[in-house]
Specification:
Number of strands: 8
Mean pLDDT: 87
Helix content: 25-40%
Strand content: 15-25%
Order of helices and strands: HEHEEEEHHEHEHEHH
Shape: globular
Distance between the termini: 21 Å
């Protein structure tokens, strides 16, 4: 593919073509990273006919440069710090800790909103396709892989529509495998490889999860009462 994806839904359908070997398998689960990875993961799961859920992770934005990831946190108390960014910007550790506290509060809010009364995520013995809308620095995905390992899946396959070549190569060793539809050079930013890179709302995430709960084709988030007061994220490197 030599053009940007129309949107995250098309990107998911394109990505699914590289994952056909996992189609129809009961031991495979697709997990999307909120929020941008959820529409991609939904389409991958729908195309492959496998189960779909989310895995919570939050970026840690550098002070004054929120688009720059100085690390990330994930469910299970996992914290990954990008030491190169912290050292280069001479960010005091108390500022890093303050950002961790703030993002943990948001992570908790989203877990309650998105998962509600859904049973805890169980991936024991499964092959997990861990999906986001792209990989730039990889800080978010790195935290997600580390946290997910604690849940004892059989394999973790990182799968994204687009990735920086160096990050894609790095994740071949961090995960069991890393699959990307395109690895353009120069990469610059995830959003450049989408015609529509609008921010994903909490409502859209809840809607897609509700469809999964109804056989990938049902209820809206509003019917579930899962509307959020926050509707968008800053676009930041992954």
């Amino acid at each position: 593919m030599n053009r940007p994806f129309a949107d995250r839904y098309e990107a998911g359908r394109v990505l699914a073509e590289s994952l056909r070997s996992f189609a129809g398998r009961a031991d495979v689960m697709v997990l999307g990273l909120p929020r941008g990875g959820v529409p991609v993961a939904y389409e991958v799961a729908r195309e492959l006919g496998v189960s779909f859920d989310i895995f919570m992770v939050r970026k840690l934005g550098a002070p004054g440069q929120e688009e720059l990831a100085m690390g990330a946190i994930a469910s299970g108390g996992i914290v990954v710090i990008n030491d190169e960014v912290v050292d280069a910007l001479k960010i005091p550790w108390d500022m890093v800790e303050a950002e961790i506290v703030r993002e943990r509060m948001e992570l908790t809010r989203r877990e309650l909103l998105y998962r509600g009364h859904r049973p805890p995520l169980d991936v024991t013995g499964l092959t997990v396709l861990l999906v986001d809308d792209g990989l730039a620095t990889g800080a978010t995905m790195r935290a997600a892989v580390r946290a997910l390992r604690r849940k004892q899946p059989a394999k973790i396959i990182v799968a994204v529509p687009t990735a920086a070549l160096s990050t894609h190569q790095e994740f071949q060793t961090i995960a069991d495998s890393c699959i990307a539809s395109v690895t353009p050079e120069p990469f610059r930013a995830v959003g450049l490889w989408y015609e529509n890179f609008d921010q994903i709302s909490d409502e859209e995430v809840c809607d897609l999860l509700a469809r999964q709960g109804n056989g990938l084709g049902g209820d809206s988030a509003s019917q579930l009462g899962l509307l959020s007061t926050e509707s968008s994220d800053p676009v930041v490197p992954r």
